[in-house]
Amino acid sequence: FRELFNNAGDSIYIHDMAGNFLEVNQVACEKMGYSREELLGMNLEDIVSPCHYNLVPQRVRHIKEYGYGIFETAHLEKGGREIPMEVNTRLIHYDGEEAVIGIVRDITERKLYEEQLKYLSLHDQLTGLYNRFFFEEEVQRLNNSRGHPITIISADLDGLKLINDTVGHEKGDEMLKVCAGFLKKVVRGSDILARVGGDEFAIILPQTDRRTAKEIIERINSQVEKYNREHPNQLHLSISLGMATAPDSREPLEKTFKKADDMMYRDKLHRGSGAKSQIIKSLMIALEERDYITEGHVRRLGKMCLQVGEKLSLSQKQLSDLVLLSHMHDLGKVGIPDSILFKEAPLTEEEWTTMRQHSEKGYRIALSSPDLVDIADLILKHHEW
């Protein structure tokens, strides 16, 4: 028994019904940082974390009544570090007296894993914000709270689908993180910020009236304007915003959120195609920055297109579209990786398949812009013979 006791993989303690230690094994000493002699002069309450003190008598009574018990607790090592533990106990007789033997296992890794799972269940992995599940739980909780007036802001990253379809989901994810960063800057400690959809965010503002919420929206818009000024060669950022206020608990917050969402869509309609046009301008700048388009090439191509068009007696509108096409036909290349566009060796069949997608990518971009919609079909077909 002594050999098994000392060579066990877990800590083992034997204590009397008052919690005084009668015997401990070597693992217990090593785990807690005490010598055997020190532990034998101590009581269970000397190593239990203060937040578990009041549970010790209750658990001892449970063991005495039922003969066993399995508990989670936390022990304090000699240096003061708290270690989460699982204790499997049995009522025994030791030297003719009732006693408790406890096999104690360090569950630090398990607790960390549980915390990670809990975090993931409540947070959006991409942005680190709360997710829709947590947002809806908070809406339910706050419905009958005393935190009124409660205002909800609905925010939507404009043009995300266009960005994903043209320059890829990685760039779309980057823009979502930028958007989340701005929203984080303006929320207060009591506010609840969540990503509630692919491109949609929501902020719950307890004890906040419309005037204060408007100030928060103005700060968000200022942050966005500042970003676009400081990053002229990056994708243009645009966020549509709407808000609604529940003055008291008579209005369900689900209804308030719906109102905020409706106001956000009104803002999106008001912005109209302007946001997408700005994104497309950003894409063209990106093309120029990455040497997809050179000024001389565009000028020469435009001149040739105009000469051919005049020779064919095209109308003025057709000539204008043709010149515009000469400038914009390779717009879709913004969504093709540099590793393919600038590859010196011959492209593989798979790479050619990717390269051929630039016409379709450019077509989708052009459809999103009133300035380019008339040449969208020409962009789609500009490699057809």
Automatic annotation (TrEMBL):
InterPro entries: Biofilm_reg_signaling (IPR052155), GGDEF_dom (IPR000160), HD/PDEase_dom (IPR003607), HD_GYP_dom (IPR037522), Nucleotide_cyclase (IPR029787), PAS (IPR000014), PAS-assoc_C (IPR000700), PAS-like_dom_sf (IPR035965). SMART domains: GGDEF, PAS. Gene3D superfamilies: 3.30.70.270, Hypothetical protein af1432, PAS domain. Pfam families: GGDEF, HD_5, PAS_4. Residues 272-385 form the HD-GYP domain. Signal peptide: none annotated. Residues 148-281 form the GGDEF domain. Residues 69-119 form the PAC domain. SUPFAM superfamilies: HD-domain/PDEase-like, Nucleotide cyclase, PYP-like sensor domain (PAS domain). Residues 1-67 form the PAS domain. NCBIfam families: GGDEF, sensory_box. This is Diguanylate cyclase.
